[in-house]
Amino acid sequence: VSLDHQQYLGDTLPEIAGEKAGIIKRGVTCVVGPQAPDGLAVIEARAARLGAPLLVHGQHWNAFEDRGRLIFQDDNGLLDLPLPNLPGPHQIENAGAAIMALRHLGVGDTEVAVTKADWPARMQRLRHGPLVDAAPGVELWLDGGHNPAGGVAIAATLARMSKRETHLICGMLNTKDIAGYLRPMAAQVDSLYAVSIPGEVNTLPAEVTRDAAVAAGMKAIVAPSVGGALAAITANSPHARVLICGSLYLAGSVLRENG
Questions:
Q1: Cα angle vertex 145, ends 115, 213, to 5°?
Q2: Nearest to 141 by CA among 94, 82, 177, 188
Q3: What per-residue confidence (pLDDT) applies to 4?
Q4: What average pLDDT does the segment 101-126 reach?
Q5: Which of 77, 139, 208, 248 has its CA 20 to 30 A from that of 147?
Q6: Segment 33-42, tens digit of pLDDT
Q7: How many whole angstroms separate alpha carbon 242 and alpha carbon 235?
Q8: Strand pairing partners for 221?
């Protein structure tokens, strides 16, 4: 649980946790990933009212990386598994929650689940399509995260990647905390190309995204489109890493454009 969709869920972690805890059903076990204490307290209170057992990260299960492997532990023992197919250290915890659910249900092949999981627009490597063909030397990625926690996760993922000139192509909605999203990534990128999201009435103007990026400590310019930004990056840095990010709406537009 993190700050996101505050216009619908509330302005504090406990308020948001209360809304998201609405998924808990009477008498049904619920697996809980890492939480801030005030958010966890709300989840625990609702579960207690509904008689729903909880399996909480750090209490009933844990998942972490050790020597290039995913280690999962619960009361039934330890699993030594390959790292998740999905990139980023946060996916260790996500995989752990999924494994805990599978073990509780007594179903599934955990190794297959971890290594074959696919999540479009979550640090998705684009390997085929017109955008990739237009920038043959570029390492192209796509992510739809759009809140401060997403920015932290992207920054941590980029920090673990091999050293390479890295540029963002970013477009966001006007309902999002753009400063909170961009600030964690500033130290990991060489520049940001700001775009408006095509066909989206609630897009932030590219100029606003650019100004927010500059305020966060990034070198930033406005681009007419994702394709235009990619062309400019390729012309100057033909072997760069490029991450298109900031919105699931932008990600959807990119996936449609890229076939």
A1: 135
A2: 188
A3: 58
A4: 88
A5: 139
A6: 999 899 999 9
A7: 13
A8: 193
DSSP code per residue over the chain: --S--HHHH-SSHHHHHHHHGGG--TT--EEE----HHHHHHHHHHHHHHT--EEEBTTTEEEEEETTEEEEEETTEEEEEEPPSS-STHHHHHHHHHHHHHHHHT-S-HHHHHHH---TTSSEEE-SSHHHHHSTTSEEEE----SHHHHHHHHHHHHHSPP--EEEEE--BTTS-HHHHHGGGGGG-SEEEE-PPTT-TTBPPHHHHHHHHHHTT--EEE-SSHHHHHHHHHHH-TT-EEEEES-HHHHHHHHHHT-
The number of CA neighbours under 13 Å toward the Cβ of 6 is 13
Model confidence pLDDT, tens digit, residues 142-192:
999 999 989 999 999 999 899 999 999 999 999 999 999 999 999 999 999
Q: CB count, 10 Å around CB of 100? A: 24
Token pair recorded at residue 21: 């805890």
What pLDDT does residue 90 have? 87
Q: Domains of the chain (ranges plus CATH)?
A: 6-116 (3.40.1190.10), 124-257 (3.90.190.20)
